[in-house]
Amino acid sequence: MAYQHNETIFALSTGLERAAIAVMRVSGAGSAVLLQQLCGTLPAPRRAVLRRVWRDSAVKDNLLDEAVVLWFPGPESYTGEDGFELHLHAGPAIISAVAEALVQSGARPAEPGEFTRRAFTNGRMDLVEAEGIADLIAAETESQRKLALAQSDGALSKLYQNWRERLKYILAYQEALIDFPDENLPQETEQKLTDEISNLIAEMQSHLQDGEKGERIRRGVVFAIAGPPNAGKSSLLNWLAERDAAIVSSVEGTTRDAIEVGGTLAGVRVTFIDTAGLRETEDIIEAEGVRRALFHVKHADCVLQMFPGATIPEEVFSDAILIGNKADLIPVPSEVHGHEVIPVSLKTGEGLKALRHVLERKVESLTARLPGSAPLLTRARHRAGVQEAQQSLAAALEQQWPELRGEEIRLAMRALGRITGLVGVEDVLDAIFGQFCIGK
């Protein structure tokens, strides 16, 4: 989408559901003229006032509504441009009439994410902070809200900007070594540069070794429920979902495809996947279900490996939580192959409270940020940028020629700059801001 930043745009920033108030948002160079046309004189900046909204206030023609009006002159506004908000009564006829008046006065409906894109273009926020805004709008859990709020407030941006400033300092001294080789610069200068590069590499490596906790918080922790037929996998899914999400039957092979159910544990979004019973089979459809089950086991954050009573599994999946079902009928071993077993009965409810505590602790361990550690990475794009910067700095340390070392440092700076949007990001802007809702 080719955006024209000299145009005045508008959008309904609240939902279309039945409500008391609807917020119409306007931004652009023509906002002052538009607001005067609708409401008369401009109110004091950033102060809510009650005004009548007319199709043409000059002649008091066609009253549209009585609304709370806020005027936000640029550059001290969300977008950095002049803008205003109309807090209207939320009747569909009122919203439609005001939108029609705005169009007739020269404004146009905003594209998804266009307000935030203008804020980015006008320097009100960088690209990482803009992505944090998108995550904040989409947040469904407390952990997502906290992570997105920290990112939109600049936690990640400050880290990357700090690294970039330090690289700028390193590059300045590196250029001095190149341009003034005969000026008898202190011998320890080059050693200090290489030491600082090594420090940055170590910091980036620590940042990358976060166990993908931030990305897990954004997308949710995935649990795959696996085990032989009739182990109670579908019953466990129904208990976790608190509804009948899967068919429960004593007939083996009832579950053929994966069934996903979402929920929240320890303030984190989670997805539970019920899979087909794992066994050798000649049935083509069931065999495909087994293949898909193994796929989900491989890609899940954690496997809930179930078995019925004393039927001990031959192998335990990596980092699995072992659950022995039917504890009301058959004694369940306390451990299998050196792994602790949680005994439960999905029929009587025995052990389910303890199982929930174990799952909550597992979620916390997969997502908790260590005190004093760097902000968590939240996107693959950020991870790739930091990895590229780290690789360039490692290459810089291997260069014998100072000119080549300086070029590798520049490449590292560019990689960090692309994360925050300082350089070379035009090809990703449409993809990022296209994910926003209209009105933001």
From TrEMBL:
Gene that specifies this protein: mnmE
Function in brief: Exhibits a very high intrinsic GTPase hydrolysis rate. Involved in the addition of a carboxymethylaminomethyl (cmnm) group at the wobble position (U34) of certain tRNAs, forming tRNA-cmnm(5)s(2)U34.
Broadest EC class assigned to this enzyme: hydrolase
Domain GTP-binding protein TrmE N-terminal: 8-124
Keyword 4Fe-4S: no
CDD domains membership: trmE, TrmE_N
EC number, UniProt record: 3.6.-.-
Subunit and interaction comment: Homodimer. Heterotetramer of two MnmE and two MnmG subunits.
Keywords (A to Z) from UniProt: Cytoplasm, GTP-binding, Hydrolase, Magnesium, Metal-binding, Nucleotide-binding, Potassium, tRNA processing
Entry binding sites for (6S)-5-formyl-5,6,7,8-tetrahydrofolate: R25, E85, R124, K440
Binding site residues for GTP: 230-235, 249-255, 274-277, 325-328
Binding locations of K(+): N230, S249, V251, T254
Places the protein is found: Cytoplasm
SUPFAM superfamilies: P-loop containing nucleoside triphosphate hydrolases, TrmE connector domain
Organism from which the protein derives: Acetobacter thailandicus
Keyword flag Hydrolase: yes
Name of the protein described by the UniProt record: tRNA modification GTPase MnmE
Single annotated GO MF: hydrolase activity
Family, per entry: Belongs to the TRAFAC class TrmE-Era-EngA-EngB-Septin-like GTPase superfamily. TrmE GTPase family.
Residue ranges occupied by any G domain in the UniProt entry: 223-308
UniProt cofactor note: Binds 1 potassium ion per subunit.
All residue ranges annotated as the MnmE helical domain in the record: 127-437
Cofactor or coenzyme needed: K(+)
Residues annotated for Mg(2+) binding in this entry: S234, T255
